[in-house]
Amino acid sequence: MTQLHFTINQEEIQNLINESVDNKIAKSILTKVFNELMEK
Fold first, then answer.
1. HSE toward the beta carbon, residue 22, CA cutoff 13 A
2. What is the 3-state secondary structure (H, E, C) of the chain?
């Protein structure tokens, strides 16, 4: 199985979520999932 390693800039990802998602519920879910992933 191939592994992929990359660096995520938390601020850039959060900005993308905020700018790209119009639905408040979807934005909230994506933000929560992203924050949980960053904690891991």
1. 0
2. CCCCCCCCCHHHHHHHHHHHCCCHHHHHHHHHHHHHHHHC
Alpha carbons 40 and 19: distance in angstroms, whole number = 25
SS3 assignment, position 22: coil
pLDDT in tens, 1-40: 898 887 878 888 888 888 888 888 888 888 898 888 888 7
State how far the Cα of 29 lies from the Cα of 34, in Å rounded to an integer: 9
The two tokens of residue 28 are 């909230």
